[in-house]
Every structure is written in structure tokens, then in C-alpha cells.
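Preliminary data (for renewal application), zinc ion complex.
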Amino acid sequence: MLTRRLYYDDSFEREFTAKVLACEPAAVPASPEAKAPAWEVILDRTAFYPSSGGQPHDLGKLGDANVLDVREHEDEIIHLVDRALGPGEAQGCIHWPRRFDHMQQHTGQHLLSAMFQERFGRPTVSFHLGTQICTIDLRGPEPTDEILEGAERAANQVIFEDRAVTVRYGTADELSKLGVRKEVDRKGILRAIEIESADLQPCGGTHVKRTGQIGLVLVRRCAKIRQDWRVEFVCGGRAERAARQDFLLLRQTAEKLNCAPEDVVTASTRALAERDAHFKKFRAMLESLAKAEAALALQAAQRGPRGFRIVSRVFEGLPAEYLGFFATEIAKFEKTISILALAEDGHVLFAQHPSAAKDMSALLKRVLEKVGGKGGGTRDFARGRLSDATQAKKAVSIAEELLSAA
Ligand SMILES: [Zn+2]
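Predicted structure:
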């Protein structure tokens, strides 16, 4: 049975009385998490908007019951509620802040899409009204910053002019004569939303009465989605919150950088340049330190029976690249081998001067077989990582044993 949709003619109707035509236990719960039983209610008329056309459903009350979901099934509107409704009449009440927010976003979308189309020839192929942001997908080449800004400014101009938003009815033919761009193949009388001298669009959604009620349109990011460009935007109360949030972030960043909000870019560029310069210096010093420590270690290392020297170390509190600097320095000397590990993360590095004539890669492989880990390399230089960093000392002593046994 057809449910009369009160929101078609007056989207500002928040309270209404209707006859309960049916109230049955719901076949499916309101959500996968919801364990409580739900009922499906059908009324003769309703102001509740069902999820459709990119606009989410309303919430609110039907008598004492909470409305959990509103769905459209052919000509009927099904209200999913958390308790059974008695026969007779029921008082409906729409949760207005949610609905008004949807109206601001939806009318804002019509307006923004119209500006993209009219000023820049970019048609909207889909619309989504999310809980945080709204999106439209534009067909065509990537919209430049000028296009994004231009459409936003044009939309806001129409908002400032506070133009009328009206509902029109007509057949597809009649509407196309009035200037509806979209091809509609639906039969019968269609509903369309007109923004005075700006747009006429077939739509079953709820809209504000005047563009001024949209408040403001803010275009946010734009990203490629398959063949289209997804433009994020927010309107009205959401735009206010987004602007407030943006400024808060800017202020917090400025406080961190110890500068005025307008100097954030300069100050962060400077801080990043300083960081890079410090990092370069740090690396250079790390290399010098590794060279010096390697020289000392070589002096202390005893030559074995065949003139070999093995320098083995487990380092602590140093970055992994230190091992590389250290090993490179050691391996410059004939018949020397370095067996290194890092206690914190289990990095291991084995390196030799080619004259030492061992196989570092094979040695690493044998060590890793015993203590666990991954790695590889060449005859002269092999590195890996232990699965358990606490095995660093053990890995080094196993390598030493294997070398002396060879
Ligand atoms: Zn619409």
C-alpha cells in the first residue's frame, strides 16, 4: 500500500500524526550488532525520510518507540522501531538536527553540482552524503584549483543572494522543457527541485526553502576515483565545524612551531630544513665516530695463527647504519673480518676484506639457521636481522666459533 510522503510537500514538517497500518516483528535486525528485536511499522502517511538518492534516512520517535532505520520498499515506507506499536494512531517526531543537516548538505550538493556543470562543464555522476563529509563524483579531466574554488565561490554567491528553493512536479517531457539537463526515463509525474535561476533537478530528497539556509559551502579535497574525480565538500553546520576545526589545527601547529598562524608554512619549512641539515651533520659525525672506533678496535684485535683478525661487537644505542660505517672501515684492511650486531633490533652485519677469503653470506646463513632470522649478501658483505633481538650476543659468538673452526 502506498505511503503518503509528507516530506515531499513540506520538508520542514517535524511532527505528524498517522494511522498505524501494520506493525510486525522485523525479519532482519536493525544492524548486525543489534541483538534486541525490532518491529517494522507501516503508516498511512509519514514525514520520515527513507535512505534513498544519496540521502540517509531520518531518526526520531514513533509514539514511545525509537526509529532505528527507515527504508523504502516500492511505494511503501518501512519504519524499523525498537518496540511494538499498538493499533490506531501514532505521533511521529523527526530528530530535527539530523534532518536539517541532511537538508543543508543535499541542497548544497544540488547547487555545487549546478555550478560545476554550468561554469566549468563538469557533470556530477554521483552523490554521497556521509556522516562527516559529502562527496560528488565529477566526470571529465582533473578539476584544477581554479575550478574547485570557482565552483565554491559561485555556489556561495547564490547562497548569499538567498534565492528560493521550490518543489516542482511534471512529466519528464515537461521538466526537460523547463531545463532539466538529466535524462529521466521514469514514467508519470516526477518531482524536481528548483533553485531559482540556478538549477532544476529531478530529486525525491528533502531540501531547505531558501539558499540562505544552506549557510555556506566549503569544498575540501579532490581525489581520483576510477575514471572520475571525487570532490569532498561540507555545507551549513558542517562547514562551520570544519572551519573551526581547521583553525584549531592551525593554531595548535603554530603553537608547536612557536610562530603566528600566518607564518606556519615559513616556520615549518625552516624547521624541516634545519632537521635535514642536522641529520646530515649527524650522519657525518656517526661516520667519523665509526672510523675512529674501528681504528681502535683493529689495534686491539689479535692476529690469529694465519694472520687473520676478527673484530666482533654487539653495539647498543646506535642506529643500524653505524654498523655499515664500522664494517666498511674494518674491511679496508687485509685479512680482517668484522662480525657485528645491534642489541636493540637484532641487526647483524658480517664483512671481510676479500683477502680473508671466507664466505660472509654462507656464514650468515649458518648463524641464522641456529638463532633464527632473515638476511643475505655477497661473499664479502652480508647483513640480516634476527627474529629475536636478545639473541644478538649469541649470534656473534656462534659466528666467531664457526670462523675459528674453519
Ligand atoms: Zn537530490
